[in-house]
Design goal:
Blueprint: H1 10-21, E1 26-31, E2 34-38, H2 39-49, E3 54-57, E4 64-71, H3 75-84, E5 89-94, E6 107-113, E7 132-138, E8 141-148, E9 153-159, H4 162-172, E10 176-180, H5 203-208, E11 215-218, H6 225-236, H7 250-267, E12 278-279, E13 287-288, H8 290-296, H9 311-315, H10 321-332, H11 338-353, H12 355-365, H13 371-380, H14 385-395, H15 398-405, H16 411-414, H17 421-433, H18 454-481, E14 487-491, E15 495-501, E16 513-517, E17 521-525, H19 527-560, H20 562-588, E18 594-596, E19 600-606, H21 609-614, E20 623-628, E21 634-638, H22 645-661, E22 669-673, E23 677-682, H23 694-708, E24 714-718, H24 726-744, E25 747-752, H25 760-763, E26 767-776, E27 781-789, H26 797-804, H27 808-824, H28 826-832
Parallel strand pairs: 1-5, 7-10, 9-12, 10-11, 13-23, 18-22, 21-25, 21-26, 23-24, 24-25
Antiparallel strand pairs: 1-2, 2-4, 3-4, 5-6, 7-8, 8-9, 14-15, 15-17, 16-17, 19-20, 19-22, 26-27
Length: about 850
C-alpha cells in the first residue's frame, strides 16, 4: 500500500518523497553521523548487513517506523556488501549544515551506486575492469556499448546476432547490463531486493545474455536514436559524432547514449569523465568463445575457477593495477592486425635485449599508483587527500620514466618521452601543497602542508595558543579547587567540559555549571571555558573551510588535466604490461614468434607455458607442430589416455594466443599465420540446468564449430563421438573430420581413440596422422610425451586402467575380451584402407560377430 507523506512527520515525509523517486533502490538517508534506512528498506538492510532492526516515531497516529542504520564513517565497509549482493543503493546527503538550517535540513540523493557505476577504489578489483554494458536491438542486429566509469574507458560497436552479443559480454565480464525494457510490462516490480528474472525476456534477449547477467531495465525511450545522439553530443561537447567513427551506426549510438543517460541519472554531479568514445569492429581481435576461454584456462582454471594455475597468473608480473587490467584485456582479446602485433613484439624484444632498461623501468613504475582510477575520482570530484597525494607522487615519476625511454626504438616505449610538463608541474604542486599522509576526510583539516598558505598557518597558530590556554586553565583549576584528578576534555556532542569524579564532588566550586552526569563522574562548564570554546570552534571551522577550499582548488586544477592524465595513464599501463611480458620471456626462455598472413602454423620445441612452470625445471617434453592450408591442414592425433594429447593441443592454442597478444612464446621457433578464431572442444560435462547430456553438449559445441570456423581458424577437437555407441561415434568422428578437411579447410587437430580414423589420411587430401609415443614393456606402459608421425593401432586403455588400480582379475578379463573383439572386428580393417569421400558404409558392422570355425 502506498504511503501518504502528509500523514507522517516532516522528516519521514521527506524520506518517503525521496523514496518514491527511487523505488528500486535501498535509500541510505543521512541523519547526523548515520545513514539510516526505514520501512521495507530497513528490514532488507538489517537482514543483509546483520544490523539491529529498531524503530522510531514518525508515522500516523504515533505509528513506529522500522529503522536500521550504519555510521557514516563506516559506509565503505557496508556499501560493498550490498552491491556484491546485487542491490542498487541511493546515497542521500544533508545538503546544508544542520546548525544553520531553518527548519528541516534539505537532503538530496547525490548518487545511486550500482554494480556497474562504482567509482570508489576500495570497492573495485584492482586488476580487473568494472564494465557497465548496454545493448540495443534493431531489425539489422544489435548495438553494444560498454564503459568502465572508474577509468574513463568507453567503446561501442554493432553486432550481427545474439551469439556475437553474448560472446562480447562474456569477454568483457560486464557486471551490469542495461536493456531497453518496459519493466512493468514484464511483470517486474521495482524493489530493492528483486532482480529481473531472465525467464521473462524473449528468446533473442535470453540468447544474447550470458548466464547470471545483472540486468537493469531502462525505458526504451532512453535507447532512442535522437535521445542517444543528444546525450553523446552533450557529453563530449561536439557537434557531430563523425570523429568517433559511429555516425553511421545507429544501434551503436543508441547503446552508448543509453549508458551516458544512465550515468547521468545515477551519478548526478559525480558523472565520470570519458576522454572519448572508441568505435570498434568485432573482427579486430582473435575471437575466443566462452567454451574456448574455459578450456584454455586463460584467466581461471577449469576445475575450480581459481586464478592460480591460469595463463594470466603465469604472465602477470605487473607493478600497477592499471597494468594488470591492460594485460588481462590483451589476453582476452588477442590481435589480428599484423602491424599492431609487431609493435608489441618490437617493444618486448627491445626490453628482453636490454635487461638493465627492463629493470630500471620496472623500478620507476614501482612508485606509480593506479593513475587511471585516480583520474576518475578526480574527475568526479570525489578524490580525497590521500588519493590526490597518490596522484601527485605518481606524476612525479614521469620524468624518470621519460628519461629511460630516450633512445628507445619501439613505438610503445618511445611514446613515453617526453613527460608532459603540465603533469610534472601538477605532481610537484600536489606534493608541495599536501601533507605526506593526509587524512581521509577533506572537511576536517590537516590537509595543507605548513608554510604553503599564510592564512592557514595563522589559524593553526591561533589554535595552538588555544591548546596552551586549555592546558593552563586545567592546571589553574586543579590548584584552585584542590581536585588533582580534574581534567578538561571535549566531545562533539557536548563541547568542552571540566570533568570531576564523584569522590571529589564536594570540592566543586559554586560557579561550576553542571553539564552532564555519568556513572563515575560529572562534567561542568564555566563562563570562561564556554567563551573560549566559542573562539576555538570558530577558529577551527574557519581553518577547516579554508583548507577545504585550497584542497578543492588543487583538485579542480587536476580535474582540468584529466584527459591528459588518462592518456599518460594508458601509456604507463601499456608499458607495465609489456614489462611483464618481457620479464616472463626472459625468465622462461620464450622466443619471438614470426607472425604473418600465411595459412600456416609451425612450431618447433613448443611447450605448454603453465604445465611447464608447474613441473620441475627441464622435465617438460617439448613437441613440434605443423598445420597449413594444403598438405597438413588436419592432424589425426592418436595415443592413449594420459599420454599428453590434450596438453599438446592446448599448448598449440596458447602459443597462438600469446603470439597474437604480442608476447614471446614457449618454443624454440614459432611461425604463426594469423588466426581469426580458435575453437576448442576438449572435454564436456552434463549441462543439468538445461537438461542436456554430455553427448548433447559435445554435439552442440561441435555444431557451432562447423558452422563458424573459417580457413583462417584453428580447431582443436578431442574425442568427438565418444559419448554414444561405438559405430555411431566413429561415424560422427569420421564425418566431422572429413568435413573440416574438405569443406572448412581450417587448421585442425583431431585427437581420438578411434585409431581407425587414421584411414582418413588415405582418402582425404590434407590429412596426416600423428601419435603420442609410448614405450611398452612386459609389465608396464611408459608415456614418452613425444608426438611423432604415424597413427597408433591401439589405445592402451586397459594399461591405463591397470595403472589406475583396477583389480588384476578385471584387467585380465578385459584383455581376454579385447582379444576376441579385435579378431572379429572387420570395421577397423576396412577403415584403415580408407573410404572414398562421402561414401560411408550403409550398414553397421557388428563388433561381436563370431569368427568362422
Amino acid at each position: 500500500m502506498a504511503k501518504t507523506p502528509g500523514a507522517y512527520t516532516p522528516m519521514m515525509a521527506q524520506f518517503l518523497a525521496l523514496k518514491e523517486q527511487h523505488p528500486d533502490v535501498l535509500l541510505l538517508y543521512r541523519m547526523g553521523d548515520f545513514y539510516e534506512t526505514f520501512f521495507e528498506d530497513a528490514r532488507v538492510a538489517a537482514a543483509e548487513l546483520e544490523l539491529t532492526l529498531t524503530s522510531r516515531d514518525g508515522g500516523p497516529d504515533g505509528q513506529r517506523i522500522p529503522m536500521a542504520g550504519v555510521p557514516h564513517h563506516a559506509l565503505d565497509n557496508y556499501l560493498p556488501r550490498l552491491i556484491a549482493k546485487g542491490y542498487r543503493v541511493a546515497i542521500c546527503e544533508q545538503m546544508e549544515d544542520p546548525a544553520l538550517a531553518k527548519g528541516l535540513v534539505r537532503r538530496e540523493v547525490v548518487r545511486v551506486v550500482t554494480p556497474g557505476t562504482i567509482l570508489d577504489t576500495a570497492m573495485l578489483r584492482e586488476k580487473q575492469n568494472n564494465y557497465l554494458a548496454a545493448v540495443s536491438r534493431g531489425a539489422k542486429g544489435f548495438g553494444l556499448a560498454y564503459c568502465d566509469a572508474s577509468t574513463g574507458e568507453f567503446a561501442t560497436t554493432e553486432l550481427a546476432g545474439p551469439e556475437e552479443v553474448r560472446r562480447e559480454l562474456e569477454r568483457l565480464g560486464a557486471v551490469e547490463c542495461l536493456l531497453p525494457l518496459d519493466a512493468r510490462a514484464l511483470g517486474w516490480v521495482p524493489a530493492p531486493d528483486r532482480r529481473l528474472d531472465p525467464a521473462t525476456l524473449d528468446e533473442a534477449w535470453r540468447a544474447a545474455l550470458p548466464e547470471g547477467t545483472y540486468v537493469t531495465p531502462r525505458a526504451p525511450a532512453s535507447f532512442g536514436l535522437e535521445a542517444a545522439q543528444r546525450a553523446l553530443l552533450t557529453q563530449f561537447g561536439v557537434a557531430s559524432l563523425e570523429g568517433f567513427g559511429c555516425a553511421g551506426l545507429p544501434l551503436a549510438i543508441a547503446a552508448a547514449g543509453a549508458i551516458v543517460a544512465y550515468l547521468g541519472d545515477t551519478q548526478r554531479a559525480q558523472l565520470p569523465l570519458f576522454s572519448g568514445l572508441r568505435t570498434y569492429a568485432d573482427a579486430r581481435c582473435l575471437v575466443l568463445d566462452a567454451a574456448t576461454r574455459k578450456h584454455l584456462e586463460l584467466t581461471a582454471t577449469a576445475r575450480d575457477g581459481s586464478f592460480r594455475g591460469s595463463l594470466l597468473h603465469l604472465l602477470d608480473r605487473t607493478r600497477t593495477a592499471m597494468g594488470g587490467r591492460r594485460l588481462r584485456g590483451w589476453l582476452q582479446a588477442p590481435l589480428v592486425d599484423l602491424a599492431a602485433i609487431a609493435a608489441r613484439h618490437d617493444a618486448v624484444a627491445e626490453l628482453v635485449g636490454q635487461p638493465g632498461l627492463l629493470r630500471a623501468l620496472g623500478e620507476a613504475l614501482g612508485g606509480v599508483r593506479d593513475i587511471e582510477r585516480l583520474a576518475g575520482r578526480v574527475a568526479a570530484g570525489t578524490a580525497n587527500g590521500r588519493e590526490l597525494r597518490a596522484l601527485g607522487e605518481s606524476l612525479a615519476e614521469l620524468p624518470a620514466v621519460a628519461a629511460l625511454a630516450v633512445g628507445t626504438r619501439a613505438a610503445p616505449l618511445a611514446a613515453l618521452h617526453p613527460a608532459p610538463e603540465a603533469l610534472v608541474d601538477l605532481g610537484n604542486t600536489i606534493r608541495a601543497t599536501l601533507v605526506d599522509t593526509p587524512p581521509i576526510s577533506v572537511t576536517e583539516g590537516g590537509l595543507i602542508r605548513e608554510g604553503m598558505a599564510p592564512e592557514v598557518d595563522a589559524l593553526r597558530a591561533g589554535l595552538g595558543h588555544d591548546e596552551a590556554w586549555l592546558a593552563a586553565f586545567e592546571a589553574e583549576e586543579r590548584g584552585r579547587t584542590g581536585i588533582k584528578s580534574l581534567k578538561v576534555g571535549f566531545t562533539k556532542a557536548f563541547g568542552y567540559y571540566i570533568e570531576v569524579t564523584h569522590a571529589n564532588r564536594a570540592l566543586v566550586p559554586a560557579e561550576y555549571q553542571r553539564k552532564q552526569t555519568l556513572v563515575n563522574c560529572e562534567r561542568f562548564v564555566t563562563p570562561a571555558l564556554k567563551a573560549r570554546e566559542v573562539a576555538i570552534l570558530d577558529g577551527e571551522q574557519r581553518l577547516w573551510r579554508l583548507e577545504h577550499e585550497l584542497f578543492a582548488a588543487l583538485r579542480g586544477r587536476a580535474a582540468d588535466l584529466v584527459p591528459l592524465i588518462q592518456a599518460v595513464g594508458g601509456r604507463l599501463a601499456e608499458l607495465d604490461a609489456l614489462l611483464s611480458l618481457a620479464e616472463v620471456a626472459l625468465a622462461r626462455g620464450y622466443v619471438r614468434p614470426v607472425v604473418n598472413a600465411l595459412p600456416r602454423l609451425r612450431v618447433e620445441g613448443g611447450r605448454h607455458p603453465v604445465v611447464e612452470a608447474l613441473l620441475p625445471s627441464g622435465t617438460f617434453v617439448p613437441n613440434d607442430a605443423l598445420l597449413d592450408a594444403e598438405a597438413d591442414r588436419l592432424m589425426i592425433l592418436t595415443g592413449p589416455n594420459m599420454a599428453g594429447k590434450s596438453t599438446y593441443m592446448r599448448q598449440l592454442a596458447l602459443i597462438v594466443v600469446l603470439a597474437q597478444l604480442g608476447s614471446f612464446v614457449p618454443a624454440t621457433m614459432a611461425e604463426v599465420g594469423v588466426v581469426d578464431r580458435i575453437f576448442t572442444r576438449i572435454g564436456a560435462v552434463d549441462d543439468l540446468a538445461t537438461g542436456q547430456s554430455t553427448f548433447m553438449v559435445e554435439m552442440n559445441e561441435t555444431a557451432n564449430i562447423l558452422r563458424h570456423a573459417t580457413p583462417r581458424s584453428l580447431v582443436l577437437l578431442d574425442e568427438i563421438g565418444r559419448g554414444t555407441s561405438t559405430l555411431d561415434g566413429l561415424s560422427i568422428a569420421w564425418a566431422v573430420s572429413e568435413h573440416l578437411a574438405a569443406h572448412v579447410r581450417a587448421r585442425t587437430i583431431f585427437a581420438t581413440h578411434y585409431h581407425e580414423l587414421t584411414g582418413l589420411a588415405l582418402s582425404q587430401p590434407g590429412v596426416r596422422t600423428c601419435r603420442v609415443l609410448v614405450e611398452e614393456t612386459e609389465d608396464e606402459v611408459v608415456f614418452l610425451r613425444r608426438v611423432v608421425p604415424g597413427g597408433a593401432d591401439r589405445s592402451y586403455g586397459i594399461e591405463v586402467a591397470r595403472l589406475a588400480g583396477l583389480p588384476a582379475a578385471v584387467v585380465a578379463r578385459a584383455r581376454q575380451v579385447l582379444g576376441t573383439l579385435e579378431r572379429n572386428n572387420r570395421l577397423a580393417a576396412s577403415l584403415r584402407k580408407g573410404l572414398p569421400a562421402q561414401d560411408m558404409p550403409q550398414a553397421q558392422l557388428s563388433l561381436f560377430e563370431e569368427s568362422a570355425t
